[in-house]
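P.,

For your records, the input lines for the assembly:
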Amino acid sequence: MISVFAATAAFGAMMVVVALILISRMRFSSLIAMFRLLSLLLAGFAFMLGWMEGERPLFAVGALVLIVKVLLIPEFLTRIAKKYNINLRLQSYVRPTTATFGGLAIVALSFLAAWRFIQEPSDVVALGASLSLVMLGMLLLLTRTDMFGQAVGFLVTENGIFLLGLAMTGGMPFFVEIGILFDLCVFVTLIILLVLRAQAEQGSLATEYLRELVD
Amino acid sequence: MITALFLIGSLSAIAALTLPKRALFPAVSTLSTALFALAAYITLPLLAGGTLQSGVWYLDPFAALLLLIIAFLQWSATLVSVPFISTELHEGTIDVAHARRYFALLSAFIFSMMLTVAVDNLGLMWVALEATTLATTLLVSFYPRKGSLEAAWKYIVLCSTGISLGLIGLLLTYYAATVAAPDLPNIDWTYLRSIASTLSPQIMQIAFIFVLIGYGTKVGLAPMHAWLPDAHSRAPAPISAMLSGVLLNAALFAILRYKTLVDASLGGGEWTSVLLVFFGVLSTLIPAAFILVQTDYKRLLAYSSIEHMGITAILFGLGPLGAFAALVHLTGHALTKSMLFFGAGNILHAWKSTKFERVGDVMKTHPYTGGLFLFGVFALLAAPPSPLFFSEYLLFAGLISTHPVAFALVAFALLVIGAGFMRFLMPLLFSPVRGGESVERETFNISHGAMMVHAVLIVSFGVLLATNAGQTIMSAIAASIF
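Structure tokens returned:
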């Protein structure tokens, strides 16, 4: 029988590895594929936790994650990119290898920080893995110079927070989870509207065009 | 009854999207008036020290005050929006579909802000606060002008990321609650407050840092303020008024809800107060540097909002007397800044520019807008009887004994900001610009009426504060925060 601790550690570790691969992807399709895998692991973790602790609401949370983050959001982004002929080669300040090394440092720091603050071993893994995902998402947000890359960075951060919620507290009350996922769907819709406007106005999603407003 | 507020809010969004063009303006104005009347009916009895708890709603005097401010500002902003949007329809800047979208998004924005202050559940509060960002993104990118896409992108990415960090703070709080009370933890604020002294102080400290940085982004506290001047300067003027006047306060409200919990778990308010003072001082210094080099009057007003949120944050970090002053400041700033943005909207429509170099002699052709704008500027710079005079007086009195260095820095920053305001806004109002085109003389319209109501309220609030009754009410509200 696997313990909750082992399951958390295993899923946490797998998600960190996937996120590390994700941050060095420079093609839109492989970035989205990695994000899909990351979300699939998140949904799997929710199912696993629901099964082991006999918590039925967690199955519903897992199903929602599956629908929203594995199916809807990646599908939506991919279709838009295809339909409007958006350049699928992404841009970044740093090279993929640099990003990976930066990512590794971030993961190490996150686990150190988690270990410093929390004594319970199972929660250290949960907190460490979630913090890593949050920070890796931020790294993506900071280093990518196209709108799609930044949006995926935000989604990775969001996944890290979801993992934290599941692992440390067994999920928020169900209606709050629904609210959070609803906000996320609206967020992605707005991102797509802004992306389409950028494509129409400047024919590119590069954020270097978005540098007018400075003091 | 609180539910009815939200029904009216939804109704007004539906009306904006479906009614024929002729009925659009009357319908949104009527619904907005009804919303304000109902909110006043609900909140006014609570201000003197009552609480109202029913279902998911919880209003204490502090939440009631914010709800009242939101309800009032949405009313005046909706009334100002009517001439504002019809001018743009008339000039062909926007079409009817745009106007519908404007009012629908405005309703969604109001709805989510009221939700933020009225719910008891901290999870729902998070959902509502994120919804305020989402509702306003398309209002920031409302015009097809250069820069509005950039402003909207910065706004949604920075604020959503910030609010995500706030979610980590919420999860850590929830975690602390499950450790302290394993059987029936929920995330209602009233419940968490009742067990707050048993929550782990270490975890609550980390939670507060995440909440302060995260929600602080939305408050516009420096150095997380980068989105604010862009969003405020690109949004339509009535929306800028609501962003400055109430959205920033709603986010600050969320931070204070956590401060109460953290203080109880730590057994004292010193730790959280020092953090608030630190970010507050930073938020007065950074705008001081930027206000001196401004070329745009809407950005000038936006930077001033950062400064005033900084002052409010410092005041909340100065104990009970500070909280009293903070509430005065928050209310006074909401009334004053929104009025100035209404005026800025009129100036923008007449001169078609937000640059100082293109606008001048406002007083000559636009005496109503100019005069009221001038009044607003003095009120904002805390000339008595402005309520901000009382709060800033208490700010300095409180700071000099507790944080002398902060006192010196804030005094310097406020001096620079005052000088910056005079340097840019007096020429705008009184001197002609070189090569300026002639501008048509204005006629009195609803927006001036709304600004006058704001001016009357500012003065009456200032006078009320000098009386015993006013001080008793504000102290009762301040007492409910802790």
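Two observations worth noting. Residues 4-203 of chain A form one domain. Chain A has one domain: 4-203.

Regards
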